Amino acid sequence: MAGIKLVYIGGGSSRGAGTMASILAHGKEFDGSEIVIQDVNPDRLHAVETIARKLAKAQGLDITISSTTDRRAALTDADAVLASFRPGNFDARALDERIPLKHGVIGQETQGPGGFFMALRSIHIYEDIIRDLDAVAPNAVIFNYTNPVNIVSQAVTRFTDRTIWSMCEGPIVFPKTVLHAAGLDPAKANIVMSGINHNIWSVEHTYEGHDLMPLLDAAWEARKDDPTLSTHAKRMLRLATTMRSVPADYFQYYYFREEVLRELQAARTTRAEDLLAALPGYWQHYEEQVNVEVPELDPARSRGGIHELELAIDVMSSYYNNKSARLPVNLPNAGGALPGFDDDVVVEMWCTVDGDGVRPLPQKPLPHAVRGLVQQLAEFQYLAAEAAWRGTRADGIRAMAANPMVPTLAVAEELYDEMAYAHRAYLPERLLK
Asked: Keywords, A to Z (predicted)?
């Protein structure tokens, strides 16, 4: 059993209770450990800590749990850092989604201008986290879930010596969209995806040992006019059959850009605004669970139930318990593991994780039909990370203009300045000049 000191940065978020429940569901793998939950909101921390303590006690776990708003104190002598935070909370995300729509550009949490500005805010906090770690926990490993995970990891791996492994369930869950749309059983499929986070494609795709594509072709012909199939599912099935590869759901923002833009512009609320409306209900549920002997999170009244950040916990357990596992991880493309991408570009691929760390499994190249867009997004990722870590307004505009969602330089300049002003409280001064 791995006895470690784990610091959970961002543990006072609406996902905090679910994340702690997920960690404690794996609790025997971490018996003898200390978990420190850190956030800037002491009231939210109290609720998450209380729920976690009660769950640990009910499960008979030998895990010490505490919370604090003092990040450096929390990080002192840490072995592992689980980072999942959102500077500016959902109010900032609402701006990321709403402002681009005014300029005829899709507003989205991790893609395009919205994702870029989330990266700027997140990486600004990461600069301070790295300084704290260098001072009080020089050997700690970062297990990152802070979005956009690819740009965050690109900045940290390029400009520091820290070990950071970023996780996202995309390679596990994206195939299900297409398989369900085709009426197929995901348990019978083997789909291997790679690329950059949220922008990955399948490089292997079989069903019961045979090529998946003929089955998808038949399903598309049978279901393309099916009114019971959602618009999104239909788009993903059509995209898979056209490009001959299973796509990440996020490719809807590129291959169906005009339709999605019109839908977002016509909607009364953005996704962030919907979440803001739901948050009071989540916290009411958490406060109710604080007052019961054995908390039980209701997935309908909480963000994610007991399955939050579970992939990061799997990676952490495999590493600290030296238990070999095959898992998807975002890390630099060392040795050109994924053909077609520079060695220092962070890519998402299936890896072997054990006590020696994370090592990419043999990777096949992305199909030519889809590789170019992913390479363009990787170049944007590289520029965005540089602007976030050490850049100025000029670097930010250059990165914005390189994003395929942004149509012209003029739009890049206008969008950058409006969004930088809106988020100025969360950005370094150098990005405002």
From this structure: Glycosidase, Hydrolase, Manganese, Metal-binding, NAD
Q: What is the CA radius of gyration of the chain?
A: 21
Q: Which amino acid is at 12?
A: G
Question: Which residues fall within 8 angstroms of residue 258, CB to CB, at 6 or more apart?
Answer: none
DSSP string for residues in 372-391: HHHHHHHHHHHHHHHHHHH-
- Is omega for the bond preceding 148 within 30 degrees of 0, making it cis? yes
What tokens were used for 273? 């605004």
Tell me the β-bridge partners of 360.
351
Number of C-beta neighbours around residue 60 at 10 A: 9
Answer whether residue 375 shows pLDDT above 80.
Answer: yes
Catalytic residues: 250
In which region does residue 195 sit, left (phi positive, over 0), alpha (psi from -120 to 50) or beta (all else)? Answer: left
Find tokens 């089955």 and name the residue.
215
pLDDT at position 59, please?
96
Tell me how far apart the 2 most distant CA atoms of the chain are, in Å: 61
pLDDT band at 1 (very low <50, low <70, confident <90, very high): low
User: Residue 306: its pLDDT value, please?
Assistant: 67
- Identify each DSSP E strand in 53-198 by its residue range: 64-68, 80-83, 141-144, 164-166, 189-196
Q: What is the DSSP string of 275-291?
A: HHHHHHHHHHHHHHHHT
For helices 16-25 and 42-58, give the axis angle rounded to 10 degrees. Answer: 20
Q: Are 306 and 21 in contact (CB under 8 A)?
A: yes
Block residue for tokens 């059509």? 238
Q: Phi, psi at residue 304, to the nearest 5°?
A: 100, -5
User: In the numeric block, which tokens belong to residue 351?
Assistant: 């890896």
In 150-267, beta strands by DSSP E = 164-166, 189-196, 199-207, 210-211
Task: Tell me which DSSP letter residue 298 carries.
Answer: -
Amino acid identity at 158: R
Whether the full predicted model's pTM is greater than 0.85, yes or no, is yes
